[in-house]
Amino acid sequence: MSILVTGGAGLVGMALREHLADQGRTVIATDAVSHGRNDPDLIIAQLTDPAALEVLFARQAITAVVHCGAISGPMLARDNPGLVVDVNVGGTARLMDQARRHGVRRFVFCSSISVYGSVGPGRIDETTPLRPTSVYAASKVAGEALVDAFQVEHGLDGVSLRIGRVYGPHRRGNCILADIIRNDLAGAQTTIPCDPAFMYHYVHVDDVVDAILTVLDAPHLPARRYNVGGGEAMTMPQIVATAEQVLPRARIEMVPGEDDVPDVQTEFDISAIARDLGWTPKVPLARGI
Hints:
By secondary structure, this protein is an alpha/beta fold.
């Protein structure tokens, strides 16, 4: 079985490729750019280029797709919403069209916790209404709708994972945990603008990869969307206290402010994927740091 991983030079894609290779599976990785890495196994292809995608599927015996490729957060390309839609919605549709035409067995779509928007107090499960507060989040809602529609209309077996804030090696976007670690190594202070009551839902990239592999290999998918998180809802003071336990020399200051993605989301319920497929997170924040 050959598995296509889009976003193969990104945080989740890099980790997924490593795990698949360790299992002896054939991996075909593609991304829009290599991010300056010497990565001879990476195929450079744009999701916005139908011809490139057609060549990719025509030349490779792809049996499953894990779609991590995207403009990967609401803080990116905010001044170019048309590009976000073209890449994240149009690119997903083009990719799924190739997948159904070439008989792909399963399509895994990496969605986001951001699809829920600013929910406020209370539990967020897969039945919570979607109220996106950014074009990025709306593009993920649209991607999930495409997964559903391609399954109903074309029989493409797909699933969407609504993933929390991912951290780990190869993280390029804004990440408070990465800032803390890098500043600690450099002997510098980390200043964090925050609301001390705001809740964060971090998940280590290894747990995300494990969830992807779980849905990729499941003989049957009882549902078409699952929440994936680290199982620890924490405020910034709790996160800082955890980081200081692990990195005792770290110098961290919290100042009044708000997060780059200020959606209020208090309790992120990941029990459905545990009940249906047996997946639970294994990397607590302290060990992840």
